[in-house]
């Protein structure tokens, strides 16, 4: 007797998919996907606009399966948002506090060390550290943050600082670009996360995050990071005021930079959570429909990105699991203490343990593979911690 239907084998029957692709008028896109040809701006727009989401998902699943088979990656990681005090007031952010505000906090080196030592049961291989831009902490503070993490766990991979933080460091350090990246490397920085890009379009920058670096500066800083030999990720914050054509523009800009530098590890579409933000009145929580579409179109447009991550904190574990059949090959990690999205009302839990992640992956028909930050596969030792 056969077991339960395996979604990964057949998220959509091929002949039905072909009928839907015809109906959606996407036969030419299908041909390009089959030939491994790059999709254009208009193709991206049509993929965002067609009502035939299942057809878009089927195409993205083809590409994902070609690259990764049935593997789905996760990692043992820990987030530390080391301060919420921020000199900027972005409309989408519920996390930031002003200096002197009661809910403001600032973690110093010893706090970070203590936090990292609390999680022995998790055996984290990565710490992800991003935060607000504190108006008065000096350049050395950023080095202190990295050094503290390495003191607590010398083997851990420190993935820290969005392009907003890197740009800030370059400005306040009074040092050359080479010196700043050498300092960060010496302190123990391993790679950079992909945040702060939001939507790489001037209209959206002006409307919702005008005080912070804009599209060109984000791309220029990412170029510097990659040219200095650091790998990084790329995100897009969707589900607020952006239009479909602006999402495509964002993807094309990321693709161009990847052609030039090749240092992006993963693309991560981030679902916007509106609660307690200035956009609360405007938006609603993104739908599963929109989440799956963003994963799928990202996979199809970013032909030079190996990995597409369904970040369960913003997508919810339910959507992240389904996203594995819409182009995603990674669901991020155990996470544990994320504050940015929880302050904005995400319904996702604080933490999933490794068994939860593996169960989500297996149930959807995929093979869970633990990875390092840089996507080396980790053999699971017999009796390794299951926290
Ligand atoms: O840059 C802010 C976003 C990002 C909200 O690289 C919000 O592996 C939703 O970049 N609703 C930080 N999102 C998180 C981030 C990230 C997360 C996971 C993995 C990686 C990686 C990177 O969070 C910010 C911003 O785009 N954000 N406010 C909000 N209300």
Structure at a glance:
By secondary structure, this protein is an alpha/beta fold. The protein contains 15 helices and ten strands. The chain is globular and about 60 Å long.
Description of the molecule:
- By secondary structure, the chain is of the alpha/beta class.
- It has a domain at 72-234 and 276-288 and 329-380: TIM Barrel (Alpha-Beta Barrel), CATH 3.20.20.
- 43% of the residues lie in helices and 12% in strands.
- It is built from 15 helices and 10 strands.
- The chain has helices at residues 14-23, 27-35, 41-49, 53-68, 109-117, 139-152, 163-172, 177-187, 202-208, 215-227, 244-261, 288-301, 312-323, 340-343, 354-363, and strands spanning 71-75, 77-80, 126-129, 157-160, 189-192, 231-238, 264-271, 307-308, 330-333, 367-370.
- The strands form 2 sheets. Strands 2-3-4-5-6-7-8 form a 7-stranded parallel β-sheet.
- Helix 1 (14-23) packs across helix 4 (53-68).
- Residues 1-5 have low confidence and may be disordered.
- The chain binds ligand V47.
- The site of ligand V47 has 24 residues, from strand 6, strand 7 and helix 14.
């Amino acid at each position: 007797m056969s077991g339960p239907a395996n979604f990964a084998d057949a998220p959509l029957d091929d002949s039905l998919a072909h009928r839907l692709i015809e109906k959606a008028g996407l036969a030419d896109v299908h041909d390009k996907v089959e030939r491994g040809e790059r999709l254009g701006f208009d193709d991206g727009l049509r993929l965002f606009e067609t009502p035939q989401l299942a057809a878009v998902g089927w195409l993205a699943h083809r590409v994902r399966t070609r690259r990764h088979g049935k593997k789905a990656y996760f990692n043992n990681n820990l987030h530390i948002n080391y301060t919420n005090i921020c000199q900027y007031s972005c409309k989408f952010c519920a996390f930031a506090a002003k200096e002197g505000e009661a809910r403001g906090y600032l973690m110093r080196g010893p706090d970070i060390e203590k936090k990292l030592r609390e999680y022995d049961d998790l055996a984290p291989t990565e710490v992800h550290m991003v935060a607000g831009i504190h108006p008065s902490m000096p350049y050395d503070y950023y080095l202190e943050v990295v050094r503290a993490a390495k003191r607590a766990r010398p083997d851990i991979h420190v993935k820290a600082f969005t392009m907003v933080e890197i740009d800030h460091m370059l400005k306040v350090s009074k040092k050359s670009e080479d010196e700043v990246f050498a300092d960060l490397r010496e302190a123990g920085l391993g790679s950079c996360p992909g945040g702060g890009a939001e939507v790489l379009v001037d209209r959206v920058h002006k409307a919702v995050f005008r005080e912070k670096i804009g599209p060109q500066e984000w791309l220029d800083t990412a170029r510097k990071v990659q040219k200095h030999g650091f790998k990084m990720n790329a995100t897009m914050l969707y589900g607020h005021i952006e239009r479909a054509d602006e999402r495509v523009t964002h993807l094309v800009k990321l693709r161009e930079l990847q052609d030039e530098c090749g240092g992006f590890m993963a693309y991560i579409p981030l679902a916007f959570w509106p609660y307690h933000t200035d956009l609360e009145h405007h938006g609603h929580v993104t739908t599963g429909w929109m989440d799956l579409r963003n994963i799928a179109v990202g996979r199809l447009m970013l032909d030079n990105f190996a990995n597409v991550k369904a970040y369960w904190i913003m997508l919810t574990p339910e959507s992240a699991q389904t996203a594995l059949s819409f182009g995603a090959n990674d669901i991020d990690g155990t996470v544990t203490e994320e504050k940015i999205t929880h302050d904005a009302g995400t319904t996702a839990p604080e933490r999933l343990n490794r068994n939860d992640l593996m169960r989500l992956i297996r149930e959807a028909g995929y093979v869970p593979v633990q990875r390092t930050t840089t996507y080396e596969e980790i053999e699971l030792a017999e009796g390794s911690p299951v926290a």
